[in-house]
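Annotated sample (chain length 179).
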Amino acid sequence: KGFSSTFTGERRPKGDRIFEALGATDELSSAIGLAGEFSSEKGHTFVDQLHKVQCMLQDVGSNLATPLSSAREAHRKRTSFSERPVLELEQWIDSYSEQLPPLRAFILPSGGRSSAALHLSRAVCRRAERCVVPLVQAGEADPNVAKYLNRLSDYLFVLARYAAMKEGKEEKIYIKSEL
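Output written by the structure step:
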């Protein structure tokens, strides 16, 4: 009948922004899964990190599916989202960034299949973040969920560059069109 239930048992229309955010994070996990498969084929050591991210996205989904306005304390405890995963992403970003050449131009999604799939994941992550921010602003989701998605998109960008570098693939740069 066009309705679905949150973790708290509340019935909401399927078009509710909570379900939009859940769908976007699910799509993000799928995109990361694809990027992980391509990266695994190339022997990248960061594939375990991508798996950990997918598990964290399940936790993100649990938090989103538990609107704070209807959650009892037991629900909140079970689905809380801490800042720890955000800090871990920042450490990973720093670790890979140190190994990359400085960015001197806007790069286009490219650099081989692993890199391109990571860029696609980054774009999906940005959309998921745009879906989550209004929920955080409305007090329905933990602010750390939005922070996590924000840092995750940065991580995916850096990782895409790292994958291209490790595979010896060229990153295509933006060139302004002559009109």
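Annotation: The chain has a mean pLDDT of 92.
Annotation: The beta strands are 3-5, 11-13.
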